TrEMBL record:
It comes from the Bacteria. The keyword Phosphoprotein applies. Residues 3-115 form the Response regulatory domain. Keywords: Phosphoprotein. InterPro entries: Bact_response_regulator, CheY-like_superfamily, Sig_transdc_resp-reg_receiver. GO terms for biological process: phosphorelay signal transduction system. Coiled coil: none annotated. This is Response regulator receiver domain protein. The keyword Phosphoprotein applies. The modification 4-aspartylphosphate is found at D52.
Length: 144
């Protein structure tokens, strides 16, 4: 059974992810913050991490870099309620980026792809990435 670590400060989202992903056949553990994250990864050796970008106490993108520095090949899926983060240059080391939704079908699909070694978020960044980034800034209101 594949193990997934969820890092999200929203209790409801942690419970939703835990329930839905357990029902899908994964072993799920959750934490609410990044402190202790590296120890938990060391101890539990998850097959994949789902990481919230905007945590209360920490920046999820900084935590992503911590994971990459020590566990480079561990798949990480970034989640955020804000689609603009998808085009932040710091997200480039994530395997996938998913906009949070109570319907977890996209997240489940990305988890399956990451665990099976499918095409990652890295491949989504092609020559038109700058055009998409510019379009996003023009269409998206500023983040509060």
């Amino acid at each position: 059974m594949k193990k997934i670590l969820i890092i999200d400060d929203d209790k409801f989202m942690r419970m939703l992810y835990d329930f839905e992903l357990s029902e899908a056949g994964y072993q799920v553990s959750t934490i609410a913050e990044g402190s202790g994250m590296m120890d938990k990864i060391d101890l539990e050796r998850p097959d994949l991490v789902v990481l919230d970008v905007k945590l209360r106490e920490e920046d999820g993108l900084d935590l992503l870099q911590e994971i990459r520095n020590k566990f480079y090949h561990l798949p990480v899926i970034l989640c955020s309620a804000y689609p603009i983060y998808k085009y932040d240059s710091r997200t480039m080391s994530a395997d996938y980026y998913v906009v949070k939704d109570s319907n977890l079908e996209e997240l489940k699909q990305r988890i399956k792809m990451a665990l099976e070694g499918g095409e990652s978020f890295q491949a989504e960044k092609g020559p038109d990435c700058l055009d998409r980034l510019n379009d996003t800034f023009e269409e998206t209101p500023a983040i509060p």
